[in-house]
Amino acid sequence: MACEAAREVKDPFKTLMKRSSMPPLIIGVMMQVFQQFTGINAIMFYAPVLFQTVGFKNDASLLSSVITGLVNVFSTLVSIYGVDRVGRRKLLLQACVQMFISQTAIGAILLVHLKGSNSLDEGLAGLVVVLVCLFVMSFAWSWGPLGWLIPSETFPLEIRTSGFACAVSSNMLFTFIIAQAFLSMMCHMRAFIFFFFAAWIVAMGLFVLFLLPETKNVPIDAMVERVWKQHPVWKRFMDDYDGKEDVKNVGMII
């Protein structure tokens, strides 16, 4: 019945621009933008180049990127198991801490030890690979899958299609920007590129801490009453939401 009611909305993009639609729209778009500014795509796209930079040979750098890919796949299983047991916010906040430590540690190692020959000794190069794997691991059970899950839970049915279209478009746009810019940024900023992404991870953690509500075990049709109207920030946006249109549409279908 709720899906049928959602189809009755004639102009979903106009509805999306209403003040009461801003909380899920802002969260949906920012989750996708922040997902890219973790630096994950930059690291996964250019892992062989990165590992060559710290001293691995061609075959070893490819093997290292395969290892990070496997870590990515298997760590996603942690999210599948834990997302409804631990909760979304805890996974995201824990990952922010782990990603921040990994990024800053990699940046510090490269800043201090990367010589003019663009290589590290074997022990430090292996440590960089471990830190990259820890970074990928934390992303894979948090911002990777939850960047898609949370918007799907927060948009009400009547604007879910239009809202998700905006969120996914943001993802594709910033994927393109990061992919195009990362190699040049790494060449110019060198080790400081990791501090750049670490700063974004701090911003992401603050966003989750203050603006992202917990959506575990909250049905989509209960989001307004149980989440938005109770949140200390987003409840201010609910003054033009009364739910009358949804009730009318469902009543017509019944």
TrEMBL record:
Belongs to the major facilitator superfamily. Sugar transporter (TC 2.A.1.1) family. This is Major facilitator superfamily (MFS) profile domain-containing protein. It comes from Vitis vinifera. It is a multi-pass membrane protein. One of its GO terms (molecular function) is symporter activity. Keywords: Membrane, Sugar transport, Symport, Transmembrane, Transmembrane helix, Transport. PANTHER family: OS07G0206600 PROTEIN, SOLUTE CARRIER FAMILY 2, FACILITATED GLUCOSE TRANSPORTER. The chain crosses the membrane at residues 25-49, 61-84, 91-112, 124-150, 162-183, 189-212. InterPro entries: MFS_dom, MFS_sugar_transport-like, MFS_trans_sf, STP/PLT_plant, Sugar/inositol_transpt, Sugar_transporter_CS. Pfam families: Sugar_tr. Gene3D superfamilies: MFS general substrate transporter like domains (1.20.1250.20). It is found in: Membrane. PROSITE patterns: MFS (PS50850), SUGAR_TRANSPORT_1 (PS00216). The keyword Transmembrane helix applies. GO terms for cellular component: membrane. Residues 1-216 form the Major facilitator superfamily (MFS) profile domain.
